[in-house]
Amino acid sequence: MPVDLIPEARTSAAKQAGVFTTRAEVALHGMYEISKVLAIPARLETTLSNVLTLLSSFLDMSHGLIALLDENGDPNIVVGSGWSATNTKSHFDRLPQLAIGQIVATKMPLVVENVASDPLFEDWIAAEEWSGKPRISFIGVPIKDRDKVVGTLTIDRISDGRTSFRFDEDVQFLAMIANLVGQTVRLHDIINRDRQRLMGEQRRLEKELSETVRPSRDAGGQMGGIVGESEAIHSVLEKIKVVARSNSTVLLRGESGTGKELFARATHDLSERKKGPFIKLNCAVLPESVLESELFGHEKGAFTGAVTQCKGRFELAHGGTLFLDEIGEISPSFQAKLLRVLQEGEFERVGGMKTIKVNVRLGSSAEKDELDAELADLKRRG
């Protein structure tokens, strides 16, 4: 969950900053408070916004921006004071592109005492709101991962002519904060890469295990891997043989541990899609945001940590069968997203605009008691 600073915490930080007698004490306490914010597990954008909010308590500034760059050096994430998902574009518009480019190219801080007379800010859109103000100053420092610039930290302030600023001390303070932010960004990147690697390894192992234990048909037409000689087992296998010849969606109901996945595999192996892939996914173990990416895939940059384009399970199952285990655990709103794929056979990746068409047979399973309870609830509602 996003973590935001409560008003009391911001007020406390501002009061504490005011009791120090030297700028060095203010900077030291500011670094301490900001390091605590960076240590809180939260979405990266929320953490960076909280850093800027605290920074304004220790430094005289009008606005603050943190811009993180992608592999091509273009702004990928831009967070400003009071950031939210709805005002992200306004922070991008406030970004002085030429000034950012100079900081990245030189890997050095940039100080501009009056942006009105500097060519780097000729086309700066944000300067329009300062019309009539005495003077606008700008300070920017690079955010580095080792020797590579991965972003910038910038502030602007209004000078009324009566207040004097020590730009050298401000630059030193901002550089120390940028160093802490760079370490945090690097840690987030490492965690996201490890997560992608582990998920890829999990998919590989699942595929290898599926191929190793794939049920094989015996001379009698029954499926290997399904143990049992009872009349009930034979009855279910006969139904499976009938269902396998169609291309309709299959829902397997039964208590946990009854082998619903084996019967789904048997349906696939007895169908005309047997040469295609059999892809499976347990819906109960993934949060809805991750489940959407797993099923539909995502484009590069769709969200924090999406460093490459990734195909979803629907694309991987093209020409075969996709088995969704514990489908009863997903929310009604997400079930509506699945309906389009079932009806039209098309979808878009998360963060993408291109419509992708697939030919997939969907199999799913749910515990019998859960479905009975849901059906009873629907009947009560009328």
Q: Class of the largest domain in CATH?
A: Alpha Beta
Poorly predicted regions are 1-18, 213-222, 378-382
Q: Count of DSSP helices?
A: 12
CATH architecture of the largest domain: 2-Layer Sandwich
Structural class: alpha/beta
Counting structural domains, the number is 2
Distance between the termini: 36 Å
Query: Going across the major beta sheet, what is the strand order?
Result: 2-1-5-4-3
Order of helices and strands: HHHEEHHEEEHHEHEHHEHEEEH
How many beta-strand runs?
11
Question: CATH fold name of the largest domain, please?
Answer: Beta-Lactamase
Q: Looking at this structure, what is the CATH superfamily of the largest domain?
A: GAF domain
**How much helicity do the residues have?**
40-55%
Biggest sheet overview = 5 strands, antiparallel
Work out the radius of gyration.
Answer: 28 Å
Determine the strand fraction and express it as a percent band: 15-25%
Mean pLDDT: 78
Q: What sort of overall outline do the alpha carbons produce when their principal axes are compared?
A: elongated
